[in-house]
Amino acid sequence: MANSGIEFEVSTWRRWVMRVPFFLTGVLFAFTAWGTLIEHWGNFEPTEGVAFAFWGALSLIAIIGLRFPVKMLPILLLQFGYKILWIAAVGYPLMSRGELDAAGQALLHANAAGALIDAIAIPWLFVARTYVIDAVSDSAHEPSP
């Protein structure tokens, strides 16, 4: 993406902050997802299996984010997005109907805490400049077919 001649940088301290959710994802999901995947290998319901496979893959990709936090920023956006969507589409509706069991409440709290950590770690101005402003600028300069 061309960026109007201006380089948008993420500061060193922000890069360290970005490493926090990558570390938490890499470590926590590695233990929970991979432990469950190995323990239940071949014995998953399809949707449950997709979730654990996704979390297992995410834990491996998060390790790359420890080394390259800015390059792996879309992974943080994905994490933030799926947590917010789960809270809005699953957790909150179940809670508001009084149908959220103890495991669901734990998942709601974990997703809320994770979304908060992601929201703090994501360099939102950089995201806006890189993925929104530059994308609009680039599309305005592309020749029409």
Structure description:
With 145 residues, the protein is mostly helical. It has helices spanning 12-39, 46-67, 73-96, 102-121, 124-141. It is 77% helix and 0% strand. Helix 1 runs antiparallel to helix 2 (46-67), helix 1 packs antiparallel against helix 4 (102-121) and helix 3 (73-96) runs antiparallel to helix 4 (102-121). The longest helix has 28 residues, at 12-39. The radius of gyration is 18 Å and the shape is globular.
List low-confidence stretches: 1-7
The residue-averaged pLDDT reads 88
Q: Mind summarizing the main beta sheet? A: none
Strand content: under 5%
State the end-to-end CA separation.
19 Å
The tally of helices reads 5
- By DSSP, the count of extended strands is 0
Q: Strand pairing plus helix content: what structural class?
A: mainly alpha
Shape category: globular
N-to-C SSE string, H for helix and E for strand: HHHHH
Task: Report the radius of gyration as a whole number of Å.
Answer: 18 Å
Share of helix among residues? over 70%
Nutshell version of this structure?
This protein is mainly α.
SSE blueprint and pairings:
Blueprint: H1 12-39, H2 46-67, H3 73-96, H4 102-121, H5 124-141
What keywords describe this structure?
145 residues, mainly alpha, disordered N terminus
